[in-house]
Design brief:
By secondary structure, the chain is an alpha/beta fold. It contains 13 helices and 31 strands. The chain is 27% helix and 29% strand. The strands form eight sheets. An eight-stranded mixed β-sheet has the order 17-16-15-18-19-24-23-22. It has a five-stranded parallel β-sheet with strand order 4-3-2-5-6. Strands 8-14-13-10-11 form a five-stranded mixed β-sheet. Helix 1 (4-26) runs antiparallel to helix 2 (30-50) and helix 2 (30-50) packs antiparallel against helix 13. The radius of gyration is 39 Å and the shape is elongated.
Length: 607
């Protein structure tokens, strides 16, 4: 059975349409058409008077004050102002512990507008359920992005990147733990910079990133953690023919503390070195094999198959190009998992300066030996002339060493658990002869670090820049662990079962400094420890401000308006429609009266 609303709608519609048709057909002219239109409008207004449209309850806009909201902020008409704990004191604002509490208290809110710097992570975990408006504030002057250095083996070069706002023309300096400047860069208009130095003593060190304005005044000093890895000597086998390259590789390996054995075939059955065997058992005891292209070809299919099997098990292989690559040569490389093209033409190597100035170069090199002549290998020495074989790889070829123009010096591809690398510079030893032994050591250190067999150890996953007062996840925990704060207090790290195989636990550091994560001894496995540097939150204020703004904007854009049925609604006011119905009915009555008075051609109602 139809409801009252549907029944009334049908009766009103029939009456209004009938009257409109009667006026339009029985009396032509504009007055008849006007009367017909007024009949339809009168019927519609009568229906709206009886059944006003449904309107959402409330309709307020919630103003949410966060950090750096102006203290003179006031709510306007239809607005309600609340202040989160991070917001300053604002007259008339209702203090709430979080955004969820504000939404529970004010269910009539239809729109949210975020003021200030943005929402902390606490308030971005859940959806708001209503549209959100937010405009990020400009970056704070100073450091707004920092890419800290990755864990670096001792003796290798590390790099860090960053971005500064409002410091164009200023300088970015890197200070070592002793406070000495080891690198410096001028900050350009875009604000980005990259700094680097040599990682020396193993352990966790605290470098300092110093930013200066264009007037050379210090703007900020930011601690930068660097973890220098103490690894057992890398076990390397050098295979090929006697050459200057092999000579200087042996010398560098000895200086770097690498456990190097070699087999250099001088021809005529004469072999120099320790006589390295390339069988399965011997390769299992090695971390890296450096072999030139001719020696690799002389191994034959069986020898290369044994090398490929060891490579898939985790061994690193470096193929050193000493001659142009032929089709057969490239095919033998593919058997090891290395797919490249070209390699028959020599291209010059572009070498950037080792340091921006002589002082920085001296600091990077550290104290020299007593027998080193003064003025040897100085900053003003000419750049050595080097060439590289022009090879081209696909997307799977990862560059480990590149020149100043981005051209490939050494690149690797994955093969099972191991990596195979191609070294394209046949005369890299010329760097040593040309006074750039530091660069020679840096290149080969980067190459071997990229392909060496991975070592086991306790190295949990932690954020690159942990800060005080922020929750962080510590992953990679396979057993119970504890964390020791700088003040000596210890806390258990409880692994979250929902993290699954990742083994993650939550840590909320309350003070800056070095925190140590330890795992107890289990069976034959000894106790292990891992140190991380927690930075003071104030030191990364500019970075935190940018991250907060960006994440809040992303969260705000993800909020959508829910369906209308999900909102509380009620009938709107009927009196505006009733007033309109009276006016339309009165005008219709006057027009009909006037038409009746003009002549008998207008029929009487009902007859």
């Amino acid at each position: 059975m139809p409801g009252p609303e549907m029944l009334a709608s049908a009766l009103i519609a029939v009456a209004a349409v009938s009257a409109a048709v009667r006026f339009a057909l029985l009396r032509r002219g504009w007055q008849g058409w006007l009367a017909a239109g007024l009949s339809l409008a009168s019927g519609l207004l009568l229906w709206l008077t009886l059944f006003p449209p449904m309107l959402p309850v409330g309709g307020e806009t919630l103003l949410v004050a966060t950090a750096e909201t102006p203290a003179d902020t006031r709510a306007g008409a239809g607005e309600r102002l609340v202040a989160l704990p991070e917001a300053p004191a604002i007259a008339g604002a209702e203090r709430v512990p979080d955004l969820a509490t504000a939404l529970r208290r004010h269910g009539q809110v239809q729109t949210i507008r975020i003021l200030g710097r943005g929402l902390p992570p606490r308030d971005r975990d859940t959806a708001a359920g209503v549209p959100v408006q937010f405009r990020p504030l400009p970056d704070l002057r100073g450091l707004v992005r920092l890419d800290p250095p990755a864990d670096t083996p001792a003796g290798a070069v590390f790099a860090l990147g960053g971005e500064a706002a409002g410091l164009a023309g200023g300088m970015a300096e890197l200070l070592d733990p002793a406070g000495r400047r080891v690198d410096v860069r001028v900050i350009g208009e875009e604000g980005s910079f990259t700094l680097g130095a040599v990682a020396r003593a193993p352990g966790l060190a605290r470098f300092t990133l110093r930013l200066r304005g264009a007037d050379k005044a210090i703007v900020s000093d930011t601690p930068v953690p660097l973890r220098t890895l103490e690894q057992p000597p890398v076990r390397v086998a050098l295979i090929g023919a006697p050459s200057p390259e092999a000579k200087y590789l042996r010398r560098w390996a000895e200086d770097a503390g690498i456990d190097l054995s070699s087999r250099l075939d001088a021809g005529g059955g004469v072999s120099l070195g320790e006589g390295v065997r390339l069988d399965t058992a011997a390769l299992r005891e090695l971390d890296v094999v450096i072999i030139d292209d001719a020696a690799l070809a002389s191994l034959g299919g069986g020898g290369r198959a044994v090398l490929a099997e060891a490579l898939a098990g985790g061994l690193g292989v470096v193929i050193r190009m000493a001659a142009p690559a032929s089709g057969a040569t490239r095919q033998s490389w593919r058997g090891l998992g290395l797919a490249v093209e070209g390699g028959s033409a020599i291209e010059p190597v572009a070498l950037p300066p080792l340091a921006p100035d002589a002082e920085t170069l001296a600091l990077r090199r550290g104290p020299g030996s007593a027998d080193q002549p003064e003025g040897l290998n100085t900053f003003d020495d000419p750049v050595p002339d080097l060439g590289r074989w022009d090879v081209r790889g696909g997307v799977d070829l990862v560059a480990a060493v590149s020149d100043a123009d981005g051209a490939l010096i050494a690149g690797w591809q994955q093969r099972g658990q191991g990596r195979v690398m191609l070294w394209t510079v046949p005369n890299s030893y010329a760097l040593v002869l040309g006074g750039e032994g530091d660069r020679y050591a840096q290149w080969w250190s980067q190459a071997l670090s990229a392909v060496a067999r991975p070592e086991g150890g306790f190295r949990p996953e932690v954020p690159p820049l942990p800060r005080t007062g922020e929750r962080m996840a510590v992953c990679g925990l396979s057993s119970p662990a504890q964390v020791s704060a700088p003040n000596g207090t210890r806390h258990d790290l409880v692994v979250d079962p929902a993290a699954g195989a990742r083994g993650c636990a939550a840590l909320w550091p309350a003070e800056p400094g070095v925190h140590v994560i330890t795992t107890p001894a289990r069976g034959q496995a000894p106790a292990q420890s891992f140190a991380l540097l927690v930075l003071p939150r104030a030191a990364l204020a500019g970075i935190a401000a940018r991250e907060t703004g960006a994440e809040t904007l992303r969260w705000a854009m993800a909020q959508t308006r829910p369906a209308a049925s999900d909102r509380p609604e009620q009938r709107g006011a009927a009196w505006p429609f009733f007033l309109g119905w009276l006016l339309a009915s009165g005008a219709l009555w006057l027009i009909e009266r006037r038409l009746r008075a003009r002549g008998s051609s207008f029929p009487q109602a009902g007859g």
